[in-house]
Amino acid sequence: MATVELRFSALPEHVRTARLVAAAVARRAGVDEAVLDEVRLAVGEACTRAVGLHQIGGISAPVKVLLIEEEKQFSIEVGDEAPHAVSGERAPGAGPGDADGEADEDEMGLAVISGLVDDVEVSAGEHGGLIKMTWPTTPPPTILV
Amino acid sequence: MDLSLSTETMGDRTIVRVGGEIDVYTAPKLREQLVELVNDGSFHLVVDMEGVDFLDSTGLGVLVGGLKRVRAHEGSLRLVCNQERILKIFRITGLTKVFPIHTSVEEAVAATD
Lengths: 145, 113
Hints:
The complex is a heterodimer of chains A (145) and B (113).
Chain A: E1 2-8, H1 15-29, H2 36-57, E2 63-70, E3 73-79, H3 102-116, E4 119-125, E5 128-136
Antiparallel strand pairs in A: 1-2, 2-3, 3-5, 4-5
Chain B: E1 3-10, E2 13-22, H1 27-39, E3 44-55, H2 57-71, E4 76-80, H3 84-92, E5 101-102, H4 105-110
Parallel strand pairs in B: 2-3, 3-4, 4-5
Antiparallel strand pairs in B: 1-2
Helix pairs in contact in B: 1-2
Protein name (chain B): Anti-sigma factor antagonist
Function (chain B): Positive regulator of sigma-B activity. Non-phosphorylated RsbV binds to RsbW, preventing its association with sigma-B. When phosphorylated, releases RsbW, which is then free to complex with and inactivate sigma-B.
Pfam families (chain B): STAS (PF01740)
């Protein structure tokens, strides 16, 4: 069940808002404090990529972020509506050596996500792409400090 | 928090102090600053990232772009960073092999190739 759903116009200034909301919901869901920086960075990368794809494709639809709290795990899904030529292809980790243009920033974003998040699924089809990232959660402490 | 930028000259080195968040929204300001410095003839840059709270791949792209620009003039781009969460992003992307990363501005200014 989606705990929080966020839709925002594909504009760079809204990516920070998505990071803040995702980190706040992740904290509440019980994601370890030490991992929250990674959550913030990973969701920022995924949203940045989606914003870029929408802007390049002239897509007016919003970027969609689902923050899903489940038993023992917390997932974030970032969906774009940009048509992708190849279905189901998982992007390889990009090497920084050939960082030579805008397209490589997209690859670097995926490389950062792959490096940060152990449980990540990247899927893409003709109606859009989806990045799903999952982190384990710990039960809330019984005694509040 | 937005991005803050200030510059200072030390000999033939130009220190660029960056504070706040470098992301897809703010990175263009950093890019403009680096381009402007290179266009004005500053080819040895030290980017002090001690005040940076957040850095993503867009920011990395801008730094790589800055490095390419100064190298075209046989210059250098050195980073100052002690923050583990920022250093981690450089490690994940392999960019620790691309950028000289120093623990202080003084160390970066004193360094030679």
